[in-house]
Amino acid sequence: MTTSLRLTSLSHAAGCGCKLGSADLAEVLKHLPAIDDANVLVDAATRDDAAVYRLSADRALVATVDFFTPIVDDAASWGAIATANALSDVYAMGGRPLFALNLVGWPRGKLPFEILGEVLSGSARVLKQAGCLMLGGHSIDDPEPKFGLAVVGEVHPDRMFTNAAARPGDKLVLTKKLGTGILTTALKRDLLPEAGLAEAVASMTALNDGAARAAALVGVRCATDVTGFGLLGHLGNILSASGVGARIEVGRLPVFPRALELAAGGAISGGTQRNHDAAPAGWRADITLAERYICTDAQTSGGLLLAVPPGRLDTLLAALDAEDTPARAVIGEILPDERGLQVSRSAAEQ
Questions:
Q1: Residue 218 belongs to what domain range?
Q2: Is there a single domain that holds both residue 128 and residue 265?
Q3: What is the mean pLDDT of the segment spanning 234-259?
Q4: Which residues contact 282 (CB under 8 A, 6 or more apart)?
Q5: Residue 51's Cα: distance from chain center in Å?
Q6: Which of 42, 56, 175, 234 has the lowest CB atom count within 10 Å?
Q7: Which class for 95: exposed (0-12), middle (13-18), buried (19 or more C-beta within 10 A)?
Q8: HEC string of 25-83?
């Protein structure tokens, strides 16, 4: 069975992935209790991609959760994308996923359970590829369909990636193209046919395991995955946690075909607009509005953003090439804190 319904038409979310805006999240996080446990290596304070809890000197658990409404109309693809997206948080910490639990909201009066079966089949395919077990989950009757996973993985405490490990001089490398939020918004608004999403779907269902292996091989210690807060939002988390600045070169960003064109035409989700409005960037005057939206586009299952010491850059790029990651673009560098976040067309403009 293949899905014939417009799943995206059942989603009322204003933004890709339905994430809270950065300012909203800050308001929520301030109500969390302070953590006083030496085994908690990473919590919400640094806005990392997952929590990390040390079990022993050489083993720590990585835990994350992510779910969202349909962003494509094919049910199996939605399940696969949501699964790759949730697993990505473990890879972004340098970890290996162990097992997962499903999270399902399903409008039983609107959608047959056969379609949910397709969602789970797509998810199972990606979990098998990741070597991650599905051990159960939870479902509720919900007027809007939602699907995602809680994932538990493991990492060596001395080899994990965090937002807090960037240093001035590090080069920034991105491992997938940008623009998924723009393209999926265009699909919802009938500005792009489903076939026009093929490359983006292939990217969103691709695991970030190869990028994580390559980064670990060369000793990278700072990474994040680019998802709902967009490139600049997730980079901003690194800058805040590490106490550094950064420069991004728009001319070196890997971007899906038609994403710039559709952004210029207004295919912008509510999440992307919130990201743009909140971006702390110093924009060069020649950066177009469409390019600014690319930098702040709310991604789903985006690539890893890696901060690598310059002396290890060539080794990292070779390792990413050997892993055949969707992209391996050097898009900027980490600067001292007083330089802030700068967005230019090229390094020559600095």
A1: 163-349
A2: no
A3: 96
A4: 340, 341, 342, 343
A5: 16
A6: 56
A7: buried
A8: HHHHHCCCCCCCCCCEEECHHHCCCCEEEEEECCEEEEEEEEEECCCCCCHHHHHHHHH
Measured in degrees and rounded to the nearest 5, phi and psi for residue 39 equal -85, -10
Count of structural domains, the chain: 2
Distance, in Å, from the CA atom of 190 to the CA atom of 171, rounded to the nearest integer, reads 38
Residue 131: phi and psi, rounded to 5, are: 65, 35
Is 16 annotated in the active site? yes
178 and 243 both lie in a single domain: yes
The CATH number that applies at residue 253 is 3.90.650.10
pLDDT band at 50 (very low <50, low <70, confident <90, very high): very high
Its pTM surpasses 0.85? yes
Q: Based on the fold, state whether residues 298 and 254 are members of the same structural domain.
A: yes
Q: Over the stretch 174-219, which tens digit does the pLDDT of each residue have?
A: 999 999 999 999 999 999 998 999 999 999 999 999 999 999 999 9
SS3 state of residue 298: coil
Residue 52 falls within a domain, yes or no? yes
- Say how many residues make up the chain: 350
